[in-house]
Design brief:
5-stranded mixed beta sheet, alpha/beta, 3-stranded parallel beta sheet
Length: 265
């Protein structure tokens, strides 16, 4: 098959759009040099192919992956798509092509660079989603619960089932500020909204009281003799602290505490 590498695919940034990139790659009998979700600002020496998102084309590829490779491979592709990894689109394309070539055996080809990198990408996404299940903090706003997160990956689709299952009798919102995405759960119905800007209102006096109680509980259960900031940051990365009620004060800690922290790092 011709391997034309002087063409760049440009698509709309959706999962269906990426599946159409895979479709066009086979129809045009070529492997692009890159796949972009935005039109580049600078001119390129490569030709540009603007991929149209056609539902029928996307459906054909999406149906073929679990059939020709495996359902687990399709799940991995969907999770890798949520990654912040540079070059993830080309990675997914090459993995799918390799999967169509070798079938389900591709999942065991761990020494292959494409398979290995895709597995690492999926692991990074799922690990962050797992951490957020414990680090996410809700606040009450007049009977509705809301939380803000700022993950590296698009974690909302990965944590949606966890929270809708455990909080099925609540009305809540989880807003991903980094990716302008939100999970809205209202009257037992869940919806993921994208490309939205949202700001939470100021907390009520009652909510502030509960926050202080939570901070007090956090401090009470701590054992001073076992204070280990390095271990804590390994288990609870600092980039999550700004949205955790009990950790916000740590970002503005005293000079004495800051010196203790720096001495241990």
């Amino acid at each position: 098959m011709p391997d034309r590498r002087n063409v760049i695919y440009c698509y709309d940034g959706t999962f269906d759009g990426l599946m159409c990139c895979v479709f066009d790659s086979y129809v045009r009998r070529e492997i692009p040099s890159d796949i972009l979700s935005e039109v580049p600002e600078q001119l390129s020496f490569c030709d540009m192919h603007f991929v149209e998102t056609v539902p029928e084309h996307s459906a054909r590829v999406s149906a073929a992956i679990p059939k020709k490779i495996s359902p687990r491979a399709f799940d991995a592709v969907k999770k890798a798509f949520l990654s912040c990894e540079d070059g993830k689109d080309m990675l997914i394309l090459m993995f799918i092509r390799k999967g169509f070539q070798f079938g389900g055996k591709v999942e065991d080809m761990l020494a292959d660079d494409t398979v290995n990198k895709l597995n690492k990408t999926v692991l990074f996404c799922t690990r962050e989603a797992h951490l957020l299940q414990g680090f996410l903090r809700f606040s009450d706003y007049g009977g509705y619960l809301a939380a803000v997160i700022e993950p590296k990956n698009k974690a909302i689709p990965l944590i949606a089932d966890h929270f809708t299952d455990r909080m099925r009798n609540e009305n809540f919102l989880i807003y991903d500020k980094a990716h302008r995405m939100a999970l809205i759960y209202f009257r037992h119905k869940a919806e993921i909204a994208e490309n939205i800007d949202f700001e939470l209102p100021d907390a009520s006096a009652e909510e502030e009281l509960y926050r202080e109680l939570w901070k007090g509980f956090y401090k009470t259960i701590g054992i001073e003799e076992r204070y280990n900031p390095r271990c804590r940051m390994n288990m609870m990365p600092k980039r999550y602290w700004a949205n955790m009620t009990e950790m916000r004060e740590e970002l503005g800690i005293s000079e004495e505490s800051r010196n203790r922290l720096s001495e241990t790092n």
